[in-house]
Structure formats: C-alpha cells, structure tokens
Amino acid sequence: MPLVNPLPPEHDSETRKLAEFFNETLGFCPNSILTMQHRPAISKAFIELNKAVMENKGRVTSALKRMIAWVSSNATGCRYCQAHAIRAAERYGAEQEQLDHIWEYRTHPAFSEAERAALDFSLAASQVPNQVDDQIKKKLYQHWEEGEIVEMLGVISLFGYLNRWNDSMATTIESGAVESAEQYLGKHGWEKGKHDGHLY
C-alpha cells in the first residue's frame, strides 16, 4: 500500500482541470498527482511546473525529454517513474528502435551523438554525488544551445522531485504505465516492486 492514499480526481476541481494535461502525455491522471491533492497548492504548482518544463522551445523534442526522464529515473531506481517516462516517450513518437534499446543508448545506432550527449548529461546529473563535469559540459556544447540545456536540466530536476516523491510514497502504478514498462523494460528486469499497491 502507498504511504498516503491518493484522493479521487474530483477532490479539487482546479487540480482536475490542470491534470487534463496528463491525458495527452500518459492517457490518465497519475496517482502521484491524486496524492499531491492532499495539499492542492502542491498539486497545482507541480502541474504548472511540469507543463513549463515539457514545453518545447528549441530542438529538444517531446520524445527526447521523456527519454531524458527515463535515464534520470533509471539512475535513481524509481520504477514508477521509469514506466511513466517510457510510456510518455512512446506516446510522443520516440522511434521504435530507441524505445527497444534505451538501455543501450551509448552504443546503439538509433541514437545520435546529440541525443547521447543529452542522455549522458541526464545520467551524470541524476547521480549522488553529482557527476556533471567539464567533459559532460563540452559534449553538451558541441550539440546544444544554452536554452536547450536549461530545458534538459528542467526535465532532470522535475524527475528528481518525482523520483523521490514516488519511491518514498510507494505510489501505486497504473495499468497503462505497467503495459508500456513490461513491453520495453521488462526484458531488462523491470518490475513493479513497491508500486504494485500491496507492498510497503
């Protein structure tokens, strides 16, 4: 069971309206948002931040942002966020080969050097202690502009919040996210873990 139970979608009308954003990204309102509704100011502020971070201003595509989120969530070990990120990448048009080989992004030909630089940045920024160094910076600047790097770090930081929220909360994972995770991540050992709604 989760640490705190989610509230029904109709609990806070403003959150419910804002949460329509997730119908596009995931096809459902995440249980994490429904749990945040215990303090509606948090749920509303989080959704607004999510929308701002995921808005595309440059060449950092919606699909790449979700792959950045997956690498970050994989680094921190949050299975809930891994499933959500791979599902959103799929829904936003990530190439089939990239979805199938996200674990091998450093070597698989489906990923460009620019994408590898972005995903390496995500991995380094998501570790504790932080591993972003001059080499990561140099690779980023070979392919990306400063505003685009800000977009990437926005995604990484957003998922840092989500990784801690959902792993600590043991948020119950939704069936749609499970389907995507089992399809693309299951062969690498992904499982629901504490997010199955029964453990914890």
From TrEMBL:
Pfam families attached to this UniProt entry: CMD
Superkingdom of origin organism: Bacteria
Carboxymuconolactone decarboxylase-like domain span: 40-120
The organism of origin for this protein: Muriicola marianensis
Name of this chain's protein: Fusion protein
